[in-house]
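Need tokens for this chain, all 498 residues.
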Amino acid sequence: MTSERLTYTFGPIEQRGLFGPLRAGQIAWLSGGAVIAIVILNQWPTAGGAVLGTVSFALATALAVWPIGRRSVHEWMPVTISYLARRAIRRTRFRSQAPASGSRSRGLGSEHPVIVPLQPHPPRGLRGLRITEVPYRGRPVGIVASRGERRLTAILACRVIAFSLLDADAQERRLARWSLVLSGAAGTSVRRIQWVERTAPAQGDELARWLATERDPAVPLRGTPMIESYLELISTTSRVSQDHEILLAVELDARRVPERGRAAATVTLLEQTERIAQSLEAAEVRVLGALTGPQVARALRTAFDPYARAELTALEAADAEHEGLAEAGAWPLGAEETWEHYRTDGAVHATFWIGGWPRAGVSPMFMDALLGSSGAVRTVAVTFEPLPIERSTREVEAAITRDQADRELRHRLGQSETARQRQAQDAAVRRESELAAGHGEVRLAGFVTVSGRDADDLRRACSQVHDQAARARLELHRMYGQQAEAFTFTLPLCRGLR
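Here are the structure tokens for all 498 residues:
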């Protein structure tokens, strides 16, 4: 007798407004249109004035509620105005000042001259970030500091082996332990947790090196039919194979640490990161270790330009002591933002927001279509913010009260209730019962960045990722006019939530 497999259901994204479904921006447009219509009628109390007032109010109503794509006009306006303003003042282009600033050398004429590291020059959206390194338990750990060192982030390299090959009970057990990792961070100094899964172009000789390392020493490297068959297969698949990389970022808010000072915040971050690493090991996720400062810089550099991995790998192979990059090498030398993509050095990127999660019950493997195998170069990132139980309780009680008020208002106006509204009400009631049962709650946002060598390559990759997301029952919304900022949401920096 087999037990019924556990399924997971995501409720609809809440879009509650100040007055029923109307949000503050929509109410402002409608109020402004009504005021203009009244002023026109007061100034010209004629048939022409009535027509003009009606037209002005109708225009304001259209701007407030008329959809273009998946957004209304009033939602598009701030995005469009901000993008056009950046283009007007030429802030959509970035050129690093690091090369022109040059390097300084100390000890000229001596036997051991020293090159002073370059000053980093990140793009505008990442100004103020610094990559530092601190010792912890005998090894260096890289830390990304931002917001005047109020936010500190450590990054773990992880590996999940054969999740799709596990039985249903093992998959559910791993997900349950992951939920314990998130709920355990609530009420601590940990502000956010983010996992990043990305594919990158595989190096052409990695499979061949693996074959040379793992083969039976008694079998010659060349000449036997078996080895020649393997080499032929490797040569035909290396052009489309991708490497998978999993990173987990832990962000700490220094203001939540009882002791003041950078040292206390750093120690707390490292302790919390170690605790999370132990919890991940209990969830059968292999933690390879915390990234060092140069490794953090390398992870950021290969995010901006995934096709630079071959050069970095060759450099590290030639110099055993050259592991990772200096902080100045983490950032691109040039970038350009357009309405629909973001170009950095040798790559073109397009970032999408996961605007819809599966509404029907899905198994733990529902994202396998997107994460499992991909011929495209892409990054999937989901950022979680654990919420205190008190805040969650207040929010769900307010949501249920608003739902009841909206239901009564629709009943008085004779409006019918849609299936989407019933789903939102059911989700709020289910959320209240889960909180009462002691379950934790998080805010989350998911993003996908697709990369290509040029515009045509990017278009093909986007089409492939869209197909994979559809099979995973995920809705991808391209973040038009916000590509430069949205790209940073898929970096291991715990961004993407307001």
